[in-house]
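[SOLVED] Need 3D model of a two-part complex

Original post:
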Amino acid sequence: MRILGISAYYHDSAAALVRDGELVAAAQEERFTRVKHDARFPFHATEYCLRQEGVGLADVDFVVFYDKPLLKFERLLETYLALAPSGLKSFRMAFPLWAREKLFQKNLLCRELKGAFGVELDWDKQLLFTEHHISHAASAFFPSPYDEAAILTMDGVGEWATTSAAFGKGNSLDIRKEIHFPHSLGLLYSAFTYYTGFKVNSGEYKVMGLAPYGQPVYAQKIFDNLIDVKEDGSFWLNLDYFNYCTGLTMTNERFDALFGGPPRKPEELLTQHHMDLAASIQVVLEEVVLKLTRGLAAETGSKNLCLAGGVALNCVANGRVLREGCFENIWIQPAAGDAGGAVGAAFAAYHMALGQPRKQSAHDGMKGAYLGPAFTDEEIEVRLKKIGAVYHSVTQPEMIEAVAEALKNEKAVGWAQGRMEFGPRALGARSILGDARSPQMQSILNLKVKYRESFRPFAPSVLREDVSEWFEMDVDSPYMLQVANVTRKHCTEMTEEQKKLFGIEKLNVPRGDIPAVTHVDYSARIQTVHRETNPLYHALLESFKAKTGCPVVVNTSFNVRGEPIVCTPEDAYACFMGTELDLLAVGNYLLWKEEQPAELKRNYENAFSPD
Amino acid sequence: MSIVKELWAFMRIRKKFWLLPVLIVTLIVGLTLVLAPSAIAPFIYALF
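Solution:
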C-alpha cells in the first residue's frame, strides 16, 4: 500500500511517500524550484517521490493533506467575529485569498494532481485530510524508535491547536490535551522575532543564535506581563500586547512601551538591547517547554518523549529537556516544521485511519533524513560536462582523502553526496564543511561563503563514538537538534576583559580547541555522525581525525543566505562558483576553484533576497 | 456546489449552525472584496 503525504499552501510545501509503513522518499518543493519556503503545490517533490519509487500516481492508494482548511477557516471567522470591528483591515486582505483559493482546497488539490499527473483518482475515497497537530504528532511518534511514548507538539498555530500533548502506543496515537489559538508558544517567540527585526516564520533560529550574546534581563517582565504559566506547563497569553489575531503586525504599541521602543527594522544595527531580548524570550520558552514536558511525564508515566512542530527546532530548549527533563529518551522529528507534516499525514492515514501495524526497527524510520534525490556518477559527469566545469574523476577513497586534506589546510569545501536531506538541516549530504579547529573559519564561512550575519554560529558534525570526548553529551543527535557544551578540557576560559567584549567581538575570542563551532556560551548544536546511516560522511570524519586527531568538522548547509539548500550537481556548482568555496566534492568528482573557467564565476552575494 | 455541501457537513459535524448567518454575511461582504482590486496578502502566520 502506498500513501502520498502532502504539505502545501502555507509555507514549506513538501511531499512524502510511505510504502507499507516504510517512509521511502520525502522532499521539500523549494529544493527543486529554488524558491525559499516555496508554498505552492509540491509538483516537483511529488514527481520526485513517485520517480524514486518507480510508480505513477495511479499506483498510490491514498493522498493525504496535512491539515483541515475548513477548521482553519472556522478559526479565522470566529477570531474576526470575537474581535470585530478591529480586524477589518486584516479581514479585507485575508478574505479574498480564502474566497478565491483556500476554501476550495479540496477541489484545488484534485485539479493540481490531475493536471500534473493526468490521473483521476476516486477523490472522495482516496483524498484524506488530517488535523495539523495530528500530522505533527504522527511525524514525531510513528517514525520514532519507541513502541510507546509521550508526544509533545508545539508550533505557531495549525487549525486551532498551538500545543498538543499526546500518547502513542503501537499504531495508536491519542491526543490528550490541547492549547488553542491565540495562546501560542510559537507565536510568542515569533512576536519577539518580529520585534528584534527578523522575518516571522524563518528568523526564529536567528533569535536563538543571538540569545547567548545577551542576558535574560527581560525574562521576569515577560512572565509578569505577557504569559501566565501554570505548573503543568499550560499557559495563557495576555493579548493586550499582541496584534497578530487581527492586525498586520505581531506586536502593538503596548508591547513597544513595555520593552522601550519600536521594533528593530530589518538589517538595522543589532544592539545589546536586542541580544537581551533574545536571551529573555529564549529563557521563557525553555522554562515553559520544561514545565510542559514534566507535566506530560507525570501524566503518561512514559520514559520516552517525541517532539515535533516548529518549536521543536529550538535545539537549545531540546538540550535542556534532555538534561533537566523527566524523560530518559528523546526523539525529535528532523523535519519538525510544516514540511514534516507531509510525513506525519501519510503515517497518520496508514496507522490511525487504516489501522495498519507499525514496523519497529532498531533505528528510527527517518533513515538519517536522507530521503531526497541522489545522482549517480554517470549523471553527475554528464551534468558537469554540460555546464563546462573542470573536474577530476577519482575513486571514493581518493575523494575522501583529498577532502580531508583540504579541510586540514583550512579550505572551505562544498560536499554534495548521496541522497539529499529532508528537513531544514544539512546533515552531510548537501553541506559546506570546514576545519572546526580553525579560529578564522567562522568569519570566513559567514562573510565570504554564506554571506550572512556575522553573529551566527556554526554547528559541528562529530563521530558518534567520539561525541562524549568533545561534548557534554552521550546520546545520539543525528539530526542536529540537540545542544550541549563543549567539554571543559577542550575549552579555554575567557579572561575578565574578554568577557566584557560586546557581541561579535566576543565570538572572535578563541574559546578552545574547536573555536569555529563553539558559541560564546561554550555551547554547540551537535550532529552525531553514524556509520549505519551515512557511511561516506563517517569515513570522511575518520580520515580527518586520522590526520588531525580531531573528529569534529564544521557543517553548515550548502547554500547562501536566502537560497534553498542545493539539490542537483548544477545547484552545487552554481553556489560553488558564486562564493569563495575552495573545493567542491560532488559524487566522486573533485572541482578546484582555481581551475574553473573565469567566465563561469557568478556574483552570489546579492543573488537571493535575505531571509 | 460541492463547497456548500462541505460547509453544511462541516457545521453539522462541528455542531456550529450558529456560524451559518455569520458565514452568509461574511460571504456577501467577502464577495465585494473578491471583486475589488486584489491586495497583497500579509505574511502573518495566524492569518493563514
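Edit: The radius of gyration of chain A is 23 Å.
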